[in-house]
Design a protein that fits this description.
Elements lengths: L1 H12 L5 H26 L3 H18 L7 H16 L2 H6 L1 H20 L8 H7 L2 H15 L10 H9 L9 H16 L3 H5 L2 H8 L9 E2 L10 H5 L30 E2 L6 H21 L7
Antiparallel strand pairs: 1-2
Helix pairs in contact: 2-14, 3-4, 3-8, 4-14, 6-10, 8-12, 9-10
Length: 303
């Protein structure tokens, strides 16, 4: 009798997971892995964003002044991130950008607060979101024009990522940078209102990455002909509301991989492997490679 009972218990333990359970488990693994990578880059390489934008600023300042272009350390960071994005997609935006990690954390706090209060908080109306999508390109154009004309330095105290860079470096003396600190506080509020608020509506570096050509193997694809009518789960789960299926706007995808596993028919796939373990290993590999490149560029901060 005991043996029979043991066999029944062992049978229950070894019972295979259903498809829905596997998708849920894989999704949780991806979320934990992504959060871990974001924390790692936030602690070790918070200056990657500001360094890359400084490189962009130096290029256009040289163009505006007619000076010869120099491959400074900041320009090198920009070029490496652009090449990395073209080869692997916007992995930097989805996993390694400090502003992206901060935005995800602020929205996570908002979701937790909604659960505690059992009440939905305010969000930006969908009609206005459509009008804001072009704003990063306008900001990028304006900032690059200022760089070329030599006027960017006069507005440095207004730039929120300058304040962010000072704070992450442990510099709490923000004398003269009050306008930038106020703008950063406004951005934090926006991050709580809408997922990836800064990335979608304000980020000039993200606008640069959106213009880059992405290699086909780095593009998430969807077999639209095999989709369930009216599903759109992948778009609903996407923090930037990107619709899969067209390589022409592949640069809009931040490759956070949040949509993977949401499709009930498993239509979403990437160029390198479709299995969950292969995807996780590839994600770890890209994170390690980017960390090594950041170390090579002297952009890693050790404690």
């Amino acid at each position: 009798m005991r043996q029979l009972g043991w066999k029944k218990n062992s049978a229950r333990v070894s019972k295979p997971l259903s498809l829905a359970q596997r998708r849920k488990r894989d999704s949780q693994c991806r979320q934990v892995l992504r959060a871990g990578i974001q924390v790692l880059f936030f602690l070790l390489a918070p200056s990657l964003f500001t360094s890359a934008f400084t490189g962009l600023k130096q290029i256009f300042a040289a163009i505006g002044s007619g000076s010869p272009l120099k491959c400074t350390g900041f320009v090198s960071v920009l070029l490496v991130l652009c090449v990395f994005t073209a080869v692997f997609g916007r992995f930097f935006c989805g996993f390694a950008c400090p502003f992206g990690a901060l935005g995800d954390f602020m929205y996570f706090l908002r979701v937790r607060l909604e659960k505690i209060r059992r009440k939905k908080l305010a969000r930006i109306p969908p009609k206005r979101i459509g009008r804001l999508n072009a704003l990063p390109f306008l900001i990028l154009s304006g900032l690059l024009l200022l760089c070329a004309m030599g006027g960017y330095g006069k507005l440095s105290e207004w730039i929120p990522w300058n304040v962010f860079s000072m704070l992450t470096a442990g510099n709490l003396r923000l004398d003269g940078f009050l306008p930038g600190a106020v703008l950063l506080a406004v951005i934090l509020v926006g991050m709580a209102l809408e997922p990836r608020f800064f990335c979608r509506f304000l980020c000039p570096l993200g606008a640069v990455f959106r213009l880059l050509p992405i290699f086909p193997w780095a593009v998430l694809k969807r077999d639209t002909g095999n989709c369930l009518k009216g599903c759109s789960l992948c778009t609903k789960s996407c923090p930037v509301s990107h619709t899969l299926g067209s390589e022409e706007n592949a640069g809009n995808c931040i490759r956070c991989d949040q949509c993977l596993g949401t499709c009930p028919k498993q239509n979403i796939h990437a160029g390198f492997g479709s299995r969950s373990k292969a995807r996780l290993l590839l994600t770890v590999g890209k994170a390690v490679l980017l960390l090594l490149l950041a170390d090579w560029l002297n952009a890693i901060r050790f404690f």
